[in-house]
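thread: overnight batch results

M.L. [08:02]
morning all. the overnight job finished for the chain we discussed friday. pasting input first so we're all looking at the same thing
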Amino acid sequence: MGLPLPWPFERDYMQLALVVGLVIGTCAPLVGAFLVQKQMALMGEGIGHLAFAGVAAGLLLSISPLWTALGVAVVGALLVEWLRGRGKASGDLALALFFYGGIAAGAVFASRAAAEGISVNVMPYLFGSILTVSPEDVWVVAAIGTLIVACTLVAGRALLSVVLDDGAARVAGIPVDGLNALLAILTAVTIVAATRIVGVLLIAALMVLPVASSRLIARSFRTTIVGAAGIGALSTVIGLAAARMWGLAPGGAIVLVATGIFAIVAGITGTTRAGFSLPSHH
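M.L. [08:03]
and the structure it wrote out:
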């Protein structure tokens, strides 16, 4: 990219990693904030395991793993929401079904691909490979980030009403089912977009931990989102710098920084629970 940035971001590959990391680090908590408020914080984990199954299926079928991961993740997220919304299963049970089924299917597909002599390397998809992103990856992630921000700005108020009290939202004429489906799709898209950055096994942490930290000090849902996005971006910068300095796995370093920030904020505030309520007009 050739930007005049200081060490450790003076090299092109670090600048590419910084751009995509900042986009995902900022946007993932935007989606995560609604999942946390909906008490579906582990949805990212469950859909991440489904995305892994999609990756393995793509490797087996010699199709782009990210496209198959996106298809499987979107369908899985919508099924989770359908099971939960129709009372077929609780949110936790629905996630558990896809959590274990996804990781099992991924293992089966990957082993089958290896048995057929297909080169299988799932590690970059599991834990990220942010230092190998290309300029094309940057454009794709930037487009996805723009979509997430746009959806948050346009539908954020209605979506908050739904996650706070879907019964009251229905009475008010808000399209609850459509907005729940939108949140499910955004979750799936965010997870797949972050596959190259922190991997499908760590993205849920980047969606939830900045939100958890921000909730400890915020006084409204709006400030929670802003604070979470800032913490996600800060975690990305510090994590990438630490990875360059000490030769660490970038995705893991980013998540560890986010974990450390939560521990520091919790220590300062003396609590691990949010200290505010969220009236629907926020």
